[in-house]
Inverse folding.
């Protein structure tokens, strides 16, 4: 059995990569540092990796493409993106390509360490529904009142949801920024994971996307074949 957790660090800025590697190794991790996307994939498939820390902008193959290639055969190894990009669309693209979390540059090592520990310690797919008792959720400038089935926009205009729309949105809010598997959603809200119910769920997801589309800091991401993630920036 390997004595230490192994991290694949993919960062093309040599000085930053060395600094991250030194700090992670000081915390007891084994770190493999590479500087381009193609070499990252080679190392990933050659060795047993517990976590990938992946820069977005790199030579030969960018981080999004590296993540997509990894996810073709591996859905479980957590991926943390490092990015200087701050647009909501870029963050969503990272999640859609298979990322589990992201960290914006510049960042403090303490924040990287916290996210590293979190990704290594928790399940990637939430199979046990959250038991949080919250009934009101802040989604950017929007407010969702799950008890009253109301979604308020930034100027106070309200949208009345159906019971099932509210149940679905509440489940996603309770697990925001985490993947909730399709099976989990179907069993919790529809009662079974039949094909018919799966198609019905897709319709409800589309409705929620439409209700939230004007709030740029909120995105409902579909990780194909896996589940959904409510991203709140």
């Amino acid at each position: 059995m390997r004595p230490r957790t192994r991290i694949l660090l993919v960062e093309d800025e040599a000085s930053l990569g060395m600094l991250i590697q030194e700090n992670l190794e000081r915390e007891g991790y084994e770190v493999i540092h590479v500087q381009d996307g193609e070499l990252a994939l080679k190392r990933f498939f050659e060795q047993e990796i517990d976590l990938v820390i992946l820069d977005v902008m790199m030579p030969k193959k960018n981080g999004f493409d590296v993540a997509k290639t990894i996810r073709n055969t591996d859905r479980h190894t957590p991926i943390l993106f490092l990015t200087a990009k701050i647009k909501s669309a870029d963050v969503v693209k990272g999640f859609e390509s298979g990322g589990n979390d992201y960290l914006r540059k510049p960042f403090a090592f303490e924040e990287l360490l916290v996210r590293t520990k979190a990704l290594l310690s928790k399940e990637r797919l939430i199979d046990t529904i959250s038991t949080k008792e919250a009934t009101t959720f802040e989604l950017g400038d929007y407010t969702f009142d799950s008890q009253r089935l109301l979604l308020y926009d930034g100027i106070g205009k309200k949208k009345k949801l159906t019971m099932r729309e509210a149940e679905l949105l509440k489940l996603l809010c309770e697990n925001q920024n985490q993947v909730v598997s399709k099976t989990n959603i179907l069993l919790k809200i529809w009662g079974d994971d039949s094909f018919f119910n799966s198609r019905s769920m897709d319709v409800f997801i589309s409705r929620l996307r439409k209700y939230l589309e004007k709030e740029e800091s909120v995105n409902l991401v579909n990780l194909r074949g896996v589940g959904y993630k409510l991203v709140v920036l």
